């Protein structure tokens, strides 16, 4: 899809459709007011009759409007004008794009967020790119059709940045939506190599032999039951000074999680292709950080394995030795993500990272605690966690901090080995998992983000089709912008 700037007023743009916005209260935005005047006050009359309320993401299509060159005017609700920000702009544009992309259209003009900051305008562009892309990667008859051209009344720099962010979110979504017979550790690494070459990232891929040499026994233990060999993908963006601090982004990349010998029941495996969403989120964010040429040093690390049952699979009761030398008693082979992250976090520490964020579809317990739309934050450094939460709030992505009390850490202390990979029973499972991970970051400021809930949308929302959501990609980009 081409993203272009236009100087043509909304009323005069010859397009299949134009999109304008309406707030719940107050005056109409400039382009909306122009459309209203040209149509003889049609939008104002609909507001007076309460047929157009301006609620967030409310859609009102108007066809064949007199005085308007476009064939269709789609009015999207923007909600409260006082609270209109990145998230609202992203979702409003995505809602309109998703609705319009049900049909094949050549050109659509988006006249949203005209009086807003460049960053909010970028969010609207990104939302447009995301909204018209579905999960139907392998359907002959697509449900959604990206437009040939989307036009905005913004400058070229804003257009380019917004498009790059939207494409990064869609990269993450596409990888999550691909089935496990297409995305597995080797093909994920191959995709990362293509992205690195296209975006100017440095890349290093550790194969099974390198992982053994590096002593990544925890990650290798998870991988040993599968015929698909593991990979650790390391991407580097050196946008800052040589001596500038380094941000590490670490992602869990379990490309399919059967549970191993602690086998999941059938229904629980339906969406386990999405258990690599943490790694996909890191890859998407790294693409955006590189193509935006942010003046910051960032390393992205993605531990990719497949967790399968076989005669070679690791067993309940096995003791693994992690890269940092700590021993781990395995009491549940379905608590595998933390075992993968243990070794990758150790690599990030040795890389010299000054701050670490890890992302993982780690626990069902976090979904129980926070629901499907909120990611959980857990940290060893409150100031660092606050910075991430502030970036997420700016982007309109939902996160919530969970406590990291010492007693949760006691639950993962082992009797047979230094650690065990599960706590005492099901209660507080998201936190005991985070306390396990904390054992592998040393004194480095670190925040763990459990994205088990929001990373995969079971049923589509107004602004996004079902499947991978690409959540937190925009937040990671915002963190990197502020880290610079």
Rg measurement, Å: 23 Å
Number of strands: 19
Helicity range: 25-40%
Mean pLDDT: 97
* Unreliable stretches covering 5 or more consecutive residues: none
Strand neighbour order, sheet with most strands: 7-8-10-9-13-17-14-15
CATH topology of the largest domain: Aminopeptidase
Largest sheet entry: 8 strands, mixed
Going by helix content, strand content and strand pairing, the class is alpha/beta
Care to describe what's here?
The chain has 484 residues and is α/β, with parallel strands linked by helices. It folds into two domains: 2-154, Leucine Aminopeptidase, subunit E, domain 1 (3-Layer(aba) Sandwich); 178-483, Aminopeptidase (3-Layer(aba) Sandwich). The protein is built from 15 helices and 19 strands. It has helices at residues 30-38, 42-48, 86-100, 118-131, 156-177, 185-199, 208-213, 217-223, 277-291, 337-350, 364-370, 382-395, 406-410, 429-438, 473-483, and strands at 2-5, 17-23, 59-63, 72-79, 107-111, 149-152, 202-206, 231-238, 246-257, 297-307, 319-321, 327-329, 355-360, 375-379, 399-401, 419-420, 446-450, 456-457, 467-468. Strands 7-8-10-9-13-17-14-15 form an eight-stranded mixed sheet, with helices on both faces. It has a six-stranded mixed sheet with strand order 1-6-5-2-4-3, with helices on both faces. Helix 3 (86-100) runs parallel beside helix 4 (118-131), helix 8 (217-223) packs antiparallel against helix 10 (337-350) and helix 12 (382-395) packs across helix 15 (473-483). The longest helix is centred in the middle third of the chain and has 22 residues, at 156-177. The radius of gyration is 23 Å and the shape is elongated.
């Amino acid at each position: 899809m081409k993203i272009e700037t236009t100087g043509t007023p909304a009323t005069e743009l010859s397009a299949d459709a134009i999109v304008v916005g309406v707030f719940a209260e107050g005056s109409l935005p400039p382009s909306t007011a122009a459309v209203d005047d040209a149509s003889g006050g049609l939008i104002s009359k609909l507001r007076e009759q309460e047929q157009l309320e301006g609620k967030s993401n409310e859609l009102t299509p108007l066809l064949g409007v007199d005085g308007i060159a476009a064939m269709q005017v789609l009015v999207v609700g923007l909600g409260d004008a006082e609270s209109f920000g990145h998230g609202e702009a992203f979702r409003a544009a995505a809602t309109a794009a998703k609705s319009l992309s049900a049909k094949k259209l050549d050109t659509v003009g988006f006249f949203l967020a005209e009086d807003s900051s460049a960053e909010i305008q970028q969010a609207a562009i990104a939302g447009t790119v995301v909204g018209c892309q579905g999960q139907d990667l392998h359907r002959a008859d697509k449900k959604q059709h990206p437009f040939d051209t989307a036009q905005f009344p913004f400058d070229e720099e804003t257009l380019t940045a917004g498009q790059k962010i939207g494409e990064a979110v869609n990269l993450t979504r596409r990888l999550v939506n691909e089935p496990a017979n297409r995305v597995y550790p080797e093909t994920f690494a191959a995709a990362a190599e293509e992205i690195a070459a296209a975006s100017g990232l440095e890349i290093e891929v550790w194969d099974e032999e390198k992982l053994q040499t590096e002593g990544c026994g925890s990650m290798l233990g998870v991988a040993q039951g599968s015929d698909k060999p593991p990979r650790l993908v390391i991407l580097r963006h050196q946008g800052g000074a040589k001596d500038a601090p380094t941000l590490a982004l670490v992602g869990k990349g379990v490309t399919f999680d059967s549970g191993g010998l602690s086998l999941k029941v059938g229904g629980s495996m339906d969406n386990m292709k999405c258990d690599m969403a943490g790694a996909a989120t890191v890859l998407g964010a790294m693409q955006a950080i590189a193509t935006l040429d942010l003046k910051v040093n960032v390393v992205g690390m993605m531990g990719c394995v497949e967790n399968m049952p076989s005669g070679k699979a690791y067993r309940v009761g096995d003791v693994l030795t992690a890269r940092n030398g700590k021993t781990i008693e395995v009491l549940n082979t379905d608590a595998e993500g933390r075992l993968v992250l243990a070794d990758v976090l150790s690599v990030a520490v040795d890389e010299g990272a000054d701050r670490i964020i890890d992302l993982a579809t780690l626990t069902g317990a976090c979904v129980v605690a926070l629901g499907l739309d909120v990611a959980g934050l857990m940290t060893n450094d409150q100031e660092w966690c606050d910075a991430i939460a502030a970036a997420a709030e700016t982007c309109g992505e939902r996160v919530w901090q969970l406590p990291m009390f010492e007693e949760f850490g006691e639950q993962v202390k082992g009797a047979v080995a230094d650690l065990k990979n599960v706590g005492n029973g099901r209660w507080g499972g998201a936190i005991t998992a985070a306390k396990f991970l904390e054992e592998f970051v040393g004194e480095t400021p670190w925040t763990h983000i459990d994205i088990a809930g929001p990373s995969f949308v079971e049923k589509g929302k107004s602004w996004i089709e079902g499947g991978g959501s690409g959540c937190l990609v925009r937040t990671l980009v915002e963190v990197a912008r502020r880290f610079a």
